[in-house]
Design goal:
The protein has helices at residues 3-7, 15-29, 38-54, 57-80, 87-98, 108-117, 125-131. It is mainly alpha-helical and 135 residues long. Helix 2 (15-29) runs antiparallel to helix 3 (38-54).
Length: 135
């Protein structure tokens, strides 16, 4: 339940703006003005609960933290439900961006020869050997 939407105010609304929004909506949906209307009564209860939380600085702070954490969890859940990447596309992208492939995917003698002469740009063996003075 989003108390800001219930009162029709922004998250940056001040205490006075929240109070005015509460009074306006409470007057509109008050059970005395809407007898025998269960929808209005339910809305009035929601409005009262929203003002109880947002009208109190300490409760509002806790509500905002809880709300933020909830939205972060939703983002994580959304990311967990994404489709895993296709490994064939990964290999193609590695070749496209880094200039090499992990496997021997090229067919024919020319492909194998080219693969032997091409140096892996991520290979740091030469730098390591020079640094350690192993040559």
């Amino acid at each position: 339940m989003d108390y800001y939407k219930i009162l029709g105010v922004s998250e940056q609304a001040g205490a006075e703006e929240i109070k005015q929004a509460y009074r306006r909506k409470a007057k509109k949906y008050h059970p005395d003005r809407n007898p025998d209307n269960p929808e209005a009564e339910a809305k009035f209860k929601d409005i009262a609960k929203a003002y109880e939380i947002l009208g109190n600085a300490e409760k509002r702070k806790k509500y905002d933290i809880k709300r933020k954490m909830s939205s972060d969890c939703d983002i994580i859940k959304e990311k967990e439900n994404t489709v895993p990447p296709n490994m064939a596309d990964f290999a193609k992208n590695m070749e496209r961006y880094f200039g090499f492939t992990f496997g021997r995917e090229r067919a024919g003698k020319q492909g194998r020869d080219a693969e032997k002469t091409r140096k892996n740009p991520l290979d740091v063996t030469e730098m390591f050997e020079m640094f350690m003075k192993m040559r």
